[in-house]
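Dear colleagues,

As part of the handover before I leave the project, I'm documenting each prediction I ran so the next person doesn't have to rerun anything. This entry is a single chain, and its sequence is reproduced below.
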Amino acid sequence: MKKYLSLIMALLAMNAIANTVMPVTPSAPIIYLSTVDTSGNILKSLNTTIYSVSNAKLNLCWEVAGMPLSAQNNVVEVMTGPERFTVIGDNNSSVDADKSGKVYTIKQVAAPAINNEFIRRCWKFDKNDPLGEYKLDVDVNGVSFPTRTFTLIK
């Protein structure tokens, strides 16, 4: 009988531990920048920030995850180029350039993707864009991320 009592007590203790709610520690906000292949139905990261303007099937995308997101999120991007270039935003964006034409501020209200887990923004470049190193600063809902760089090549 003592063996059964010990066994039952052990099982109850394990059940109590299993049912204990452990608080989920939110991950730190993170940004990921990569050139992606858009030739298939699913975006495929090429795990590089080098973008060839001669390949029409590429986009440069960033994703922000690991932070609370709502149905509408304030996104501010500041893109700095090596020379004067042009940024064309979508209908949901406002685009402002500095006098030099090398620095653009793009503001938009963005909806998160897939279960409110992340925000993704993609850019397309072409042969009219100057080659060289660009800088990208991203702020989402007041959270500023470290400057990212990418390079346009032929």
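The chain has one domain: 26-153. The first strand starts at residue 30 and ends at 37.

All the best with the project,
I.
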